[in-house]
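Hi R.,

As promised, here are both runs. First protein below:
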Amino acid sequence: MEELNDILLQRRDKLNSLRSEDINPFANDFRVSHTTADIHAAHGAQDAAALAENPVDYAIAGRILARRDFGKAAFVQVQDRAGRLQVYVARDQLGEEGFELFRKLDLGDVVGVVGTPFRTKTDELSLRASNLRLLTKSLRPLPEKWHGLTDVETRYRQRYLDLMVNPAVREVFLKRSRIISLVREFMQSREFLEVETPMMQPIAGGATARPFKTFHNTLKMDLFLRIAPELYLKRLVVGGLERVFEINRNFRNEGISIQHNPEFTMMEFYQAYATYEDLMDFTEELICHVATEVCGSLKLSYGGREVDLTRPWKRLSFTEAIAHYGQVDLAVLEDHGQAFDYARKLGLELDRRMPLGKILAEIFDEVVEPHLWQPTFITQYPTDISPLSRKNDARPEVVDRFELFIVGRELANAFSELNDPIDQRERFVQQLSEKEAGDEEAHAMDEDYIRALEYGLPPTAGEGIGIDRLVMLLTDSASIRDVILFPQLRPER
């Protein structure tokens, strides 16, 4: 710490020295003409002779990440938004004053460079600087090994530093942006309208989750950060917007893990006159399209194992999956007492008063999820755990719903929507009784949503796709924190 303080003082001294020489350490009058990638694209195939025959001036700007000094000359690596380029700085090119300024620069400083491309003796494409300007003085040193910032806590907490020195991290977030753009373009090409719904809601609805609570001073009322946009999007379908989607931020006051962040991104959409079975085909098409565009293949590597997205994907019912992977008879899963005893044998600590569907959900998480590495649709979930889904016409104890699992984690959740307002009210009432019994994730009553359903929600299917988890899959990222620019962390000590 003492050594770091010395370095900080040295850099402050340099800052003051520059100002005393009438050099602005935070200049804003340098004009950039090209990126480093432009220069690589234009001259990457040219040899030394061709570059010398047709010299072209370029103006680039970026951060100094490395330097090698040789007395009257030096090489520096300059990084901008598009990549990196080596710059050759020499006294006879910059002049005495310009070179003296360069000698005062540190790693991390942002500079503007004007120069012409050439090949070094090792044949590396470089820029011979004819002019160099300090644009921003860095008052803190880069990590000692700038190319290997590995402390996870530092990387997440100081993402600006992570992006600055780790090219692979940059690439992840460039891909994230590309993935979101591809999802948006795909939805719009299928005539879905992108909409925005409230992030602060009087009732935390659309999912079973513990919400974040706030208070509006003017209205003198409690509000909740949304846990899902579902009930608002379905109101829009009632209003005649038959295909809607939202790439949205959701907030759930729950645990943090490599799969969960309290603030996360989903793409949620609703299509009138469709069923959950239609959405299985739609989901395959969407994810395969995005994977092909981003990764160039439907066969990916994740955590050292292959994931094959080639269609069609496997489909199993909820209880079939438990019976298969848990090696248990289906009859056990249909009886409350036997299912509870089976859960206890698995080491699960459950309340015997829990509905059968919730017991099965706990069993599923334990014995099925870890095995669902290749893309698998799990269908026919218990009605007990699906308060917003349409009951199956032939088997009312289950709903018309699927969840998509890839690499052992849920990636998407979809229903044929419940559009019977009487049934919906009964489900909400049941949820209220569970909330009174202590379930903080149970759904609240939403009278306005019931009223909307009474005007008539067309037969509709809806789905939510976890954007963060999709990015994890397509970038081979082990933790959700690796694909969220600023993940939630404990306060810095």
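And here is the second one, sequence first, then its structure tokens:
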Amino acid sequence: MEQAGRARARQLRDEDELSYGEIAAVLEAEGIRPKRGERWHPETVRRMLANTTDRPLTLRRPAS
């Protein structure tokens, strides 16, 4: 389920350009549970999206 949440959060961020709080609300509304805890928090979404270790190299954005 964690992968589904991560994939959906990336989709919302990239395609819909939603804020972290808005993404957290959408994940909650869609019934996607976080790995730990009861609900999504904007900071959890930010950290999850900042983690690029699971992305293929071709999809990683260059470091600023």
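A quick note on the second one: DSSP finds three helices and no strands in the chain. Let me know what you think.

Best,
J.
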